Amino acid sequence: MAVTPVDLEKVIEKAGSLYEAAIIVAKRSRQVNEELKNEFTERLNAVAPPEPLQPTEILEEEGDRNPDQEIISREFELKPKPTEIALDELLDDKIDIRRQEPPAEAIHEE
Fold first, then answer.
1. C-alpha span between 25 and 6 (Å, rounded)
2. What residues make up the domain containing 13?
């Protein structure tokens, strides 16, 4: 896996500051990770064996493994990591950044 350099100036330009960019990418990568996990689980359950294995059963022989599940697992291992996806989305303007306005302080005249 090669390390790809990121132009921090572009990241700061998109988010306003490096700190904000880190927060935005972290939040989005958590969402992406959850989406990938749900997709992975759904696909694995689709090819699950008809009867569930007992917790005490250990797959000892190569023939006991489900090749479809192994293919799906390898496919997901090759996908980009959630942080990489989130950073690419930030740089490609695919993330809608909504900033929370600070609460206005009430001015009390006495």
1. 13
2. 8-48+65-91
Number of domains composing the chain: 1
Tell me: the pLDDT tens digits for 20-77?
A: 999 999 999 999 999 999 999 999 999 876 665 566 555 555 556 789 999 999 999 9
Q: Could you please report the per-residue DSSP string of 42-69?
A: HHHHHT--SSPPPTT----SGGGS-HHH
- 59 within a domain of the structure (yes/no): no
How far is the C-alpha of 20 from the C-alpha of 95, rounded, in Å?
Answer: 13
Has residue 53 been placed in a domain?
Answer: no
Q: What is the pTM of this model?
A: 0.76
